[in-house]
Amino acid sequence: MFNNEIMKQGEKIKRIRKMLHMTQEELAEGICSKQNISLIENNKQKISVNLANAIAKKFNRIAKEKEINISTITPGELMIDEDEQANYIFSNNIISELKEIQTIDLFEQKLLKAENIIREHVITDSNKIELYKLATDFYYYRYQYTKSDKMCDNGLKICINSLNNFEEAIFYIYHSRNYIFTENYIKALQQLDYAEKLNSHIMDDNLSIMILYHRGLTYKKLGEYDTALKYFKILKEKNVKDKTMLLKIKMMYANCLTEKNEFEEAEKEYFEILSINDKDFIALAYKNLSELYLNNKKYKESAKCIKESLIYNEKNVYLDESLFFAAKVLTHVNEDVETYLLQALEICEGKDRENLDLIKDIIDELVLIYIEREEEENLMLMADKAKVLNINYCLSYARISKYYKGRNEEKSTYFTNELIDKLKQV
């Protein structure tokens, strides 16, 4: 009862008593004095084990006699203090809810609630670490790297203060991810060095795998594919039990081979991934195969693979990127790609506009299509949308200005001036 609320012992007893339409005298009868009940309800006296047993027993009896439908009350429920309640709510309600939230605004509301509970109550370090790991991940997968770093720092402080070396190493790895995707590769490797130093004492296989994987990823992003392959080869020889990590390793290994123009080997790796029953990775493997064939100017094979990717990719978090890539591929086989681009744009807008670079690229492509078709109404819709979404619309406005030059000088001048203003901001 009251599992979603944090309240003092006395307040809980008072609320249950009133739910059962009992007076203090009726509750005290045969148990203790009315003064004891009054002191407890006003939080001036703690409830003892014996008294909690007696009160719980009486509450349950009265509820049954009056046929009031409430869950069975236990002595422990009456004795639990506010901090215990706060930790229960924190782990069973707040953390669970945060795991299901997809939108940034709602996530941040719940996160603020969680941090308020941390300030007001004694929350266990394990609960706080779980919160900040979850928040770090949430922002990372939504391209909010600065916010992800902040959550990472919060988690690191707790780990260092509580001497939790394992979780501390995890947060260093999380930091490295953010640095990798903000192209700060020196700091990324530095964070992995910190994690590896901690793991030299812990000797945890999973930590070792994560560190090697992110080292490989860092060197892949640096364009040092031979070094990256060295790390991914080590990982391929390890007994990686986590299926998702194993698939990520195989995918990155194949991607490095693609970058090195070792197309036959890369193709073989992608086909191996297709044989594993995991829709998200099958979708990604088909997308990468499509890119492989596109680079080799095998446009029909590329188009076939990207369409297969979209079939498996129905609910994948990267569906917007796949739709945009499909548009790039299908132009080579003379398919109308407007629908793919509009779908991608709709998904981007529904995801709190988290990937502004992708939105910019989609709008740029749609502007080109509408200019070619001379669809001025749709062209203006894209121009307005670009401004509302506050993306870098310089390229689109330059194209629109050029389109109207000699057709409508007023509009051409307007878009030129808007372009100049935006360039000043950029």
Give descriptors for this structure:
mainly alpha; 434 Repressor (Amino-terminal Domain); globular; Putative transcriptional regulator; DNA binding; TPR_rpt
Topology:
Layout: H1 9-19, H2 24-28, H3 34-41, H4 49-65, H5 75-79, H6 82-100, H7 104-120, H8 125-140, H9 145-161, H10 165-181, H11 185-202, H12 205-221, H13 225-237, H14 243-259, H15 263-274, H16 279-295, H17 299-312, H18 319-330, H19 338-350, H20 356-373, H21 376-388, H22 394-404, H23 409-425
3D structure, described in words:
By secondary structure, the chain is mostly helical. Among the domains are: 9-80, Orthogonal Bundle (434 Repressor (Amino-terminal Domain)), CATH 1.10.260.40; 355-426. It contains 23 helices and no strands. The relative contact order is 0.04. InterPro entries: Cro/C1-type_HTH (IPR001387), Lambda_DNA-bd_dom_sf (IPR010982), TPR-like_helical_dom_sf (IPR011990), TPR_rpt (IPR019734). GO terms for molecular function: DNA binding.
Number of strands: 0
- Mind telling me which CATH architecture of one domain this is? Orthogonal Bundle
Radius of gyration: 30 Å
Structural class of the helix and strand makeup? mainly alpha
Q: Terminal Cα separation, in Å? A: 56 Å
By CATH's scheme, which homologous superfamily of one domain applies? Answer: lambda repressor-like DNA-binding domains
Pfam family, one: HTH_3
GO molecular function: DNA binding
Protein name: Putative transcriptional regulator
Nutshell version of this structure?
Residues 13-68 form the HTH cro/C1-type domain. With 426 residues, the protein is mostly helical.
